[in-house]
Amino acid sequence: MELKWDKHLSVGVAEIDQQHKLLIDKFNAFMSACREERGNDEVFRLFSFLDVYAVTHFADEERLMQRIGYPDYNKHREKHAEFKKAVISFRERLKNEGPTQELTTSAGLLITGWLIEHISGMDRAIGKFMIEQGKVQ
After folding, report:
1. How many other CB atoms sit within 10 Å of the CB of residue 133?
2. What is the pTM of this model?
3. Fewer beta carbons under 10 A from the terminal one: N or C of the chain?
4. pLDDT tens, 70-113?
5. DSSP secondary structure string, the chain?
6. Does residue 127 fall inside a structural domain?
7. Is residue 24 a contact partner of residue 115, using CB atoms and an 8 Å limit?
8. In a domain, 67, yes or no
9. Of 59, 57, 69, 55, nearest to 19 (Cα)?
10. Rounded mean pLDDT of the chain?
C-alpha cells in the first residue's frame, strides 16, 4: 500500500502542498519498512517521525487558518485532534505489539484513507478559500 502524490491532492498553497508531499513520503517509508521487516527500531523511528511531523504540520495549518480567518477552523481542528488520537493509539500498540501484519495493515488503511480524504476535502477547501479571498501566498 503506497500513496502517490497526485496533482488532485494539491491544495494550491505551496507550504501545505510541500508538507503533504513529505508526509506521504514518510508514510511510504514507514510502510516499506514494515513490509520489508526491517526491524522494530527502524519501524518505530519512521512512525515516530511521521507522528511528530503530522503534529507540526497540523499546527502550521491551524496557524494559517487563523491568520486568514478561515470559517471552518474549529471543525478542521477537531478533525486534526481525532487523527492525533488515532495515531497515539497506534503508537502505543506499536510499542506493545511490535509491527505485526495486522497492526501495520490497520495503520496503513487508516492513514491512507485519512490523508486522501482530508487533503482532497478539507485541506483543498483552505486553498479554495485563500484563492477566493486573494490570500494565496
Report:
1. 11
2. 0.85
3. C
4. 999 999 999 999 988 888 888 898 889 888 888 888 888 888 88
5. ------GGG--S-HHHHHHHHHHHHHHHHHHHHHHTT--HHHHHHHHHHHHHHHHHHHHHHHHHHHHHT-TTHHHHHHHHHHHHHHHHHHHHHHHHH-S-HHHHHHHHHHHHHHHHHHIIIIIHHHHHHHHHTT---
6. yes
7. yes
8. yes
9. 57
10. 88
Higher pLDDT, 77 or 27: 77
User: Residue 124: which domain range?
Assistant: 13-131
User: Mind giving me the DSSP string for 85-119?
Assistant: HHHHHHHHHHHHH-S-HHHHHHHHHHHHHHHHHHI
CA 36, CA 32: separation in Å to the nearest integer? Answer: 6
Nearest Cα residue to 50 out of 64, 37, 33, 66? 33
**Number of residues written out for the chain:** 137
Q: Is residue 72 part of a domain?
A: yes
Is 4 inside any structural domain? no
Over residues 24-51, mean pLDDT: 84
pLDDT value of position 1: 67
Q: Which CATH number belongs to the domain containing residue 31 in this structure?
A: 1.20.120.50
